[in-house]
Sequence to fold (287 residues):
Amino acid sequence: MDNNPYIVRKQESVLATNKVLRNTYLLLSLTLLFSAGMAVLSVANNARSPGIIITLVGIYGLMFLTQALRNSSWGLLAVFAFTGFMGYLLGPILNLYLHNFSNGGELIATALGATGAVFLGLSAYVVTTRKDFSYLAGFIMAAVIGALILCVLGIFFHAPILSLAISFLFVLIASGMILFETSQIIQGGETNYIMATVSLYVAIYNLFISLLQIFGAFAGNRNQ
Amino acid sequence: MGGFSQIIAALIMGGLAVYFIFQVKRQPQIFEKSKLIKSLHTMGIMALILIAFIWLCIAFLRG
Fold:
């Protein structure tokens, strides 16, 4: 047994980090499964988009609720409510692809597989190398604001090339978010597994939607 | 087609921006020039890898 206080503290810190990482991945798996279940239900029931107001209130309200309850067990309920709502919102998007493209199912499956591959690849890289990617924070924040501005422009000017550029930017930002957040957990910068889960979930969700849009644009066979 | 999904993505990104603002409010040092240059390098390499990967996926879908 080692009695050196520095080594003991370091071992405790590593154990705490591993616990946060394990809890985050466990909660992330459960929320992704729940979200997928909600998306399947939404697709099966041919659910329509709930409208911009409900979408806005739902996403931000549940996100802030999760943030507010992050230190209590109610936070778990809030994170499931948030991811379930996000899963429900996927339904109308998936239905559009299934109805408008003859290879819609293939596009969705490929986007899902590619999202999984990117997430696993980036997470495995950070976990094995234990590199500190905290320096990405400023760049990602600037990129998010840039993407938001492009999004607003995209709503007013319906340019397909702008839409694709936004999707590529979202793929890059989401990948950067995965690197950053995983590194934060490993380095002990993020100690709350509920917030880490929300952050990773949002990155994965964005990655999936953006990849689906890119695949639809380049390899989708539209129904006549 | 992509309108609704893009609005959702924009909303999510907005949430992320708020989250980041909360996170970096106490750390103005994250915008240091050296960190931004290092970030540009990392993201540039990752962008190239992602473009190659997406191209492979599209080739698979078309094939």
The helical segments of chain B are 3-24, 33-62.
